[in-house]
Amino acid sequence: MSRSMFRQSILHALMCVVSVFFVIPHATQAGEKKLKPATLSKAYQTECAACHLAYPPAMLPGQSWDNIMKGLSKHYGTDASIDDVDAFKEISQWLQDHAGTYKKPALFPPPDDRISKTYWFVKEHRKIASDVWLRDSIKSPSNCAACHTKADQFDYRERNIRIPD
Ligand code: HEC
Ligand code: HEC
Q: pTM (2 decimals)?
């Protein structure tokens, strides 16, 4: 082994050690950062955060958002149709632009195109007892903001979770 090759392999080994310390903690944070879209859509906030909070587009794959936008007249038992063509287009495009970046399993459409039925959601919330979901202050797993106090800001970090009585 020549001197420069030796130096290179030492350097490589050092980089590996360094990346274990820096890249891994960084990777666990990435999921949270990706929840806040780089750009916001006014139309999304107006049209899609009237009945419930603005769900992070990153939490569903593009296919699910497409299904949801095509089925708005029969939206989980309610009519959520959007008459304004421009608003409809803006929202559809914006959802596609920011879709599916949170957790790998979200790349596949979950049952009913529900975030609350994704594999990772069920896993993250498995310790919550079934009667807790039914409390008057919560009512449904879809009601993220009941426990995630900063969900309206796309912030789901553990430090901002409070389960209401
Ligand atoms: C007229 C009220 C209304 C409007 C407007 C509305 N929704 Fe909903 N949405 C609902 C209801 C009701 C549910 C079911 C909540 C439940 O099961 O507790 C729901 C559920 C959802 C869910 C699934 C939540 C879960 O369980 O993971 C998504 C995603 C969603 N809506 C997206 C949208 C988008 C995108 C728009 C805008 C285009 C929109 N909603 C506009 C009423 C509405
Ligand atoms: C009944 C209260 C409650 C509701 C409602 C709820 N969550 Fe949670 N969520 C929790 C708790 C508690 C945890 C922490 C679980 C643990 O670590 O054991 C959690 C964890 C999470 C995490 C992981 C956070 C992290 O950084 O580790 C995400 C993401 C999340 N929830 C998203 C959602 C979304 C999206 C919704 C709505 C569709 C939702 N949650 C509804 C209580 C709730």
A: 0.86
Q: Give the chain's length.
A: 165
Sketch the domain layout of the chain as residue ranges: 42-160
20 lines ligand 2 (CB under 6 A): no
pLDDT in tens, 134-158: 999 999 999 999 999 999 999 999 9
User: What does residue 76 show for φ and ψ, rounded to 5 degrees?
Assistant: 45, 45
Cα-based distances in Å from 37 to 16, 46, 154: 31, 16, 8
Kindly give the distance from the C-alpha atom of residue 165 to the centroid of ligand 1, in angstroms, as a whole number. Answer: 24
The CA distance from 45 to 10, in Å, is: 52
Q: What is the pLDDT of residues 4-40, one digit of tens each?
A: 665 666 556 555 544 544 444 333 443 455 799 999 9
Nearest Cα to Cα of residue 142 among 24, 16, 54, 81: 54
Separation of 152 CA from ligand 1 center, angstroms?
14
Q: Is 91 helix (H, G, I), strand (E, B) or coil?
A: helix
Q: Which of 125, 154, 160 is nearest to 54 (CA)?
A: 154
125 token code pair: 């919330």
Distance (Å) from CA 127 to ligand 1 centroid: 25
